[in-house]
Structure formats: structure tokens, C-alpha cells
Amino acid sequence: MASIRSVNWWRFSPSQILEKYQAHAFDRRFGTDTSTYVELRGLDVAGSNKRHGERYQPSPVHSLRQLLKKLAIRYQDFVFVDFGSGKGRTLLVAGELPFKEVIGVEFSEELHRKALLNLQRYPRRAAGQVKSVHADATAFEAPAQPLVVYFFNPFTRPVLERVLANLAASAVATPRRIIVIYLYLPDETWLAELSGFRLRKKVRNYHVFDFDPPVPVTNFGTATILDIPG
Ligand SMILES: C[S@@+](CC[C@H](N)C(=O)[O-])C[C@H]1O[C@@H](n2cnc3c(N)ncnc32)[C@H](O)[C@@H]1O
């Protein structure tokens, strides 16, 4: 007989039961198609990063909704970007809030097209605009607006680093508030050790960071741009 210690009691917590129920009920209720996992193997993909990509798997509905509702931001000021948006489950859930815009970036054309159909079908929309873009995450230029950037384990570290380097360059060019949410971060040090990332909170499997990269110091001969003229 299993000992009490070997039983994962959290699996039977009310929020976990609600999570499971909502995951199953979501597509049935709204006529969307977001639940089934899709392996990348059989998909045509834009760009050369397929080998670094993870399969499509939707974000959970209940916990994501709860997390986004508690961000304590003025949603109208922010653009939400989901890097590796697949069939668009997260775009639908984020679009329930009055974000200025919700953008998904997906490198599989098939999944991107599914997302477009799901967006047409989904009746709950408070965001100004919700769209799916067919592109590799490394080629996407984030809008120069305050951002909530979302990753649900979409790709391995080499691609993540390039996406974050683009984001850092954009933040330096146009300083603004950037919040990064990562669901199932494989290793906390990946982001915590990069300059500019400050962990704001951790809720279950979501890490929420403020991202404020330092402006690089440029040398001009012997002086630096930080020198104050005497
Ligand atoms: C785990 S799923 C996350 C789906 C979605 N974000 C959600 O929360 O429901 C990862 C997705 O990232 C996509 N992906 C992987 N590498 C990518 C890349 N380099 N550029 C754009 N999308 C990518 C995959 O095709 C897949 O749809």
C-alpha cells in the first residue's frame, strides 16, 4: 500500500481539480481547437530553429488566468507577446484582459493557421487587438510599448538567448516597463543570472521577472559616455 508520503496530495487540491476540468472543458465550451499536443517533427517551419523548438502543448487555463489578473498593471498600456504561441490558447486567455494588443509569434504555419481560426471563434475579447504572427521568434521585433512577454517552454537556450538579446536591445533603444513571465523555466539561473532580470514573484510553475537591462557603456577614446564634463 502507498504510504501517505508517496501520494502527491497537491494533485487533488481544489485549484488542481479546477485546472484539469478547465483544460478539458475549454475547447468543448468555445468550439476552439487548442488542447491536442502536436510534435514538431511533421510540421513545416519558418527559419532554421526547428531543432531547438519544443512541441505544441497549451498553457493551463485556470492558473494562467489567475496569474494575469493579478499582474497589478494598467493593461491598456501594455502589449502582451507570447513567443511560440502555437494554436493560440494563451492569446485567447490574455485577450480576455484589456491589453492594448495581444500578439502571438509562431514558426509553424499550420499551428499559426489554427490560431487564426481559434481567434475567430473565441467570443471573449477585451484586448484592443489579438493576432497571431507567422515568424521565428528570433526574427520578431517587439513593439516599442510597455510589454508583458510570455514563454511557455517554447525552445531551448540558444534560441531563448537570441530572443532575449533582441529584447534587451529594444529595451535599451526604448526604455520602458517589460515584464517577463516564464512557465516551466527549465533552470532558474538562466534568467536570474542575466543582467537586468529581477525575480518579482514565483507562483506555482510561473516565474515573473521585471526586465530592465543596463545601458551598455560605450568608449569614446579615453572617455566614456558616463564621464561628466568638468
Ligand atoms: C509549449 S508550446 C506553447 C504554446 C503556447 N505558448 C501556449 O502557451 O499555449 C511551444 C510552441 O513554441 C513554438 N516554437 C518553438 N520554437 C519556436 C521559434 N523559434 N519561433 C516561434 N515559435 C516557436 C512551437 O511550435 C510550439 O507551438
**Strand share of the residues?**
15-25%
What's the CATH topology label?
A: Rossmann fold
CATH level 1 class label = Alpha Beta
Mean pLDDT: 88
In what order do the strands lie side by side in the largest sheet?
3-2-1-4-5-7-6
The biggest beta sheet is recorded as:
7 strands, mixed
What is the CA-based Rg, rounded?
19 Å
Report the end-to-end length measured between terminal Cα atoms: 79 Å
Count of domain modules: 1
| CATH homologous superfamily placement | Vaccinia Virus protein VP39
Keywords:
alpha/beta, 9 strands, two-stranded antiparallel ribbon, 230 residues, globular, disordered N terminus, 20% strand, binds S-adenosylmethionine, Rossmann fold, 6 helices
In short:
The chain is of the alpha/beta class. Helices cover about 30% and strands about 20% of the residues. S-adenosylmethionine binds near residues 49, 84 and 154.
Describe the 3D structure.
The chain is α/β, with parallel strands linked by helices and 230 residues long. The protein has one domain: Vaccinia Virus protein VP39 (Rossmann fold, 3-Layer(aba) Sandwich), CATH 3.40.50. The protein contains six helices and nine strands; from the N terminus they run H-H-E-H-E-H-E-E-H-E-H-E-E-E-E. The chain has a seven-stranded mixed sheet. The protein has a two-stranded antiparallel sheet with strand order 8-9. The longest helix is centred in the N-terminal third of the chain and has 17 residues. The N terminus and C terminus are likely disordered. The structure holds S-adenosylmethionine.
